[in-house]
Structures are given as structure tokens and as C-alpha cells.
Design a protein that fits this description.
Belongs to the RecA family. RadA subfamily. Keywords: ATP-binding, DNA damage, DNA repair, DNA-binding, Hydrolase, Metal-binding, Nucleotide-binding, Stress response, Zinc, Zinc-finger. A motif (RadA KNRFG motif) lies at residues 253-257. InterPro entries: AAA+_ATPase, DNA_repair_RadA, P-loop_NTPase, RecA_ATP-bd, Ribosomal_Su5_D2-typ_SF, Ribsml_uS5_D2-typ_fold_subgr, Rubredoxin_2. The chain is α/β, with parallel strands linked by helices. It folds into 3 domains: 4-39; 71-274, P-loop containing nucleotide triphosphate hydrolases (Rossmann fold); 293-453, Ribosomal Protein S5, domain 2 (2-Layer Sandwich). Helix content is 28%, strand content 25%. It has 10 helices and 22 strands. The protein has a 9-stranded mixed sheet, sandwiched between helices. It has a 4-stranded mixed sheet with strand order 15-16-18-17. Helix 7 (330-343) packs across helix 8 (370-382).
Amino acid sequence: MARTSTAFRCTECGWSTAKWVGRCAECQQWGTVVEAAAPTGITRTVKAAAIAPSQAARPIAHIEVAATSHRPSGIGEFDRVLGGGIVAGAAILLSGEPGVGKSTLLLEVAARVAAGGRRVLYVSAEESAAQVRLRAGRTGALHDELYLAAEADLATVLGQIDEVSPELLIVDSVQTVASSLVDGLPGQPSQVREVASTLIRVAKERDLPLLLVGHVTKDGTIAGPRLLEHLVDVVCHFEGDRQTSLRFVRALKNRFGPTDEVGCFEMTGDGIAEVPDPSGLFLSRARTSVSGTCVTVALEGRRALPVEVQALVVATKAPQPRRVVNGVDPSRVAMILAVLERRAGLKALGEHDVYVSTVGGVRLVEPGADLAIAVAIASAMRDRAVPHELAAFGEISLAGEVRPVAAATQRATEARRLGYTSILDVEAGSVRAAVERAMLAAKGSRERELDAAF
């Protein structure tokens, strides 16, 4: 008999230590080190016995390829993110902040699939059946082929699957379902691992598409073990600002399609509605030109979207001028201000407060918006309104040159489709030339407005 001593082991990666610590030194996860009985000393090694395989291995070229077809869910924006639809036997994980609309979206998906003649089982482990029924009645998601079960026990959920025999299974959420075979409360790493692996195994055996709702932590990562993201086939993130009705679905992992697609939705009083053409959501409705505004064309996945950047420059006597930004990277705005002052001749920026924001709550993180930010700041500084038909996109370097950006042809095509006939891009050469060109266009636009007025 080997003597045993108290040891502590990480439930995430298996790392062990002689004393308890709050954070695993191997995978850097918090709260995953638990007490376990670890054998010490010399023990007899038990070798695994070989078992005859049920099917012999074959050369990879001789294996027949089964056509993995996507079946549309009925929501075009959701199918766009998934790569064309839901694949049989696929495990899809949808994560997002609390209250962003995950359950509303999946309930709408369930209703669309049920309306297409396929049986759907919606398992709610967070809400009662009456609560889900009330929301379904408000959003118009009632259908005879949509079955609802409020269960939080894994064995009972498996029994519901055997009873209903669905063609689509939705579990809301994986962190609230528990298994009696594993110790611990629902949501702990061991419970999440057991529940997810069991449901995915059943989905693969029956070619049953599985949609799982996942909670997120404070820093926005998916709660539970990292193994959860490796087990599923598709990881989608549902995001949006609570102050606006706009929502985005992004694919972080997709074994059946691209990971650079974005689905656009809008939360309404009657549920959630897809927005197939969100071109006008991030533009202001001002009829007359206003100084300090410029339109850029940003890429959201493979979709080009026009976004209006607004800037306000106000003189100040404070020793430290304010730099307030919303929707853009503060460090890039600071760099653009330095380049404008050093390379474009805007010498007095250090004596002004600068405010930069985007319209519609969208966040611009790509460098392609640098030129539009620079033009908006220069327009606000010189109090000249950029004409409505001008759009700008390009990266600004510290040397003051305008560098090319990805998918420039697609951006220009989308801008021209929306009526932007004058485009500032890499052909401007330098940020000074681009700013002067925009100011000349602003002067000409002002003269045309005065001529029209008189």
C-alpha cells in the first residue's frame, strides 16, 4: 500500500502542489486548485490492455468525404456568422454579457427552425417555463414543434432528449446545469466540463445540432474551464451596448466556416430583428454640413460599414488640455494629434481641448480610421465643414504619410455605392496633403451653399 498525503490539484490543467494556492501556476486560472488525495511512494504501474478496434485504420485518401451541409436557421444574419447555417451534430457556444439578449436570440432561432418543420427542444435552466412562455408570446415565438423544458439536472435533460427526439437542442445555459455524478455546485469547472462533454457526445452520436449559452466573467472571457471552447465546434460572442439597441454576433471559432463574419441585429420591443444593411446606422442625420465631422469606411468582418467620426476642438487655458475620446483608441488619437501638430502645421493643438467620438456607439479599433479622425480634427480646428460626399480611410504613420489599408477596393466600392464621390485614401500621399485637400473641398462646399442661398 502506498501512503497518501494531502495534495492540491488544478481542475483545469492537472497541475499539483503540496499546499493550497489561489491561482494555478501552470494555466494562471483563479480558484481552480482543490484538495485531492495524491499517492506518494513507489506504486505498481498498471498497463492499459490493448483492445481490438471496431474498424481498421485506412489511408486518408481512401476515406469517403461526407458532405457537411448547412441548414439555414431562418435568420440570415445568424447564418452568415455560422458560415451558411447550422450543421448536423455541431456544438455551438454563444456567450455574452448578462442581459444583452442571448436567450431572446436563441428563442427566435428556435421558433424559426420549428416553423420550418423541424422539432426543437429548448431547455431553460435559468428561467421557469412560464417565464420563457411569456417572452415567447411577446416576441411571437410560439409554435407546436417548439418544445420547452425547465430542467437543471443533466440526467433529466437527457431523458427529455429521449422523449422528444428533437432535431435541434438549445440549452440555456451550460453553467446552470449540474450532474449528480460530479461533486460541486453548478458552474464549477468540473460540473461545466461534465455537462458540456456529455451533451456534445450525445449531439455527435445522434447528429443533433446543439446550441449552448455560456456566461462570461468580468473581463469578458467565457466562464468555466478553457476546455469548453476546445470541445465545441463554433464559439460565437453576442455583444452590444445597453444604451443602444444595436447588437453584433461575432464568430471567434468556426470549424465549418469563416471567423471574420459579423451579424448585425437590433433589439426592439417585440424581440430581436436582423439588420441586413446597417449602412446608415452610424451616420448622423444632419442636413447641413457641420465642421468637425468626417465619414470613414470600416470593416466589420467582411462587411464594409460607413462610420461618422466627430471631433470638437475648444480653446483652453489649462496647463494640461483634455483629450476625451469615445469609440476610438485613445493612444491612436494622441498619436494623430502629435502628427497633425508636427507634420500638418496645426501648431495650436496643444492649447485646445480635443473631443473625438463616433456616431451610433460603434467602436473603431482598426488603423484605417486614422485619416478620418485627422480630417475631423482639422475640420474642427479650422471651423470648416467637410462636404457630405467626402469619405476618408487610411493609416497615418509617424512620418506623416498615409499608408494603405486592407480591402481598400471594397471600402471604396461601398463608399461610392452610398453616394460618396470624393474619397481620401493612400493616393493623398501625406497627411498634410490629405488635410489641405479636405479643407479645399470644405471651402468649395461652403461657397456652393452660399450661392444656393442667394
